[in-house]
Amino acid sequence: MDRTGILLPFKLFGVAVRLDYSFLLVLPLFAYLIGGQLPAYAELFEASMGIEVDVSALTGATRWLIGLAGAVGLFASVLLHEAGHALVARRYGVEVKEIRLWFLGGVAQFDDMPKQRGAEAVVAIVGPIVSFAIGFALLRLAPALVGSSAVLMIVAYVGVTNVALALFNLLPAIPLDGGRVLRSLLALALTRERATAVATSVSAVMAVILGLYGFFNMQLWLVILAFFIYNAGRLEAQASLVASAFAGRTVADLMTRDPVTVAPDMRLTQFVQLIHFRPHTGYPVVDSSGTLLGFARLAAARRAGAPDADPVEVDPAATVADITEPAEIISPTAGAYDALRRVAEGRLGRLVVVDAAGRVVGLLSKTDLVRTLSRKEATRDGRPV
Question: How far apart are alpha carbons 252 and 199 in whole angstroms?
Answer without folding.
Answer: 33
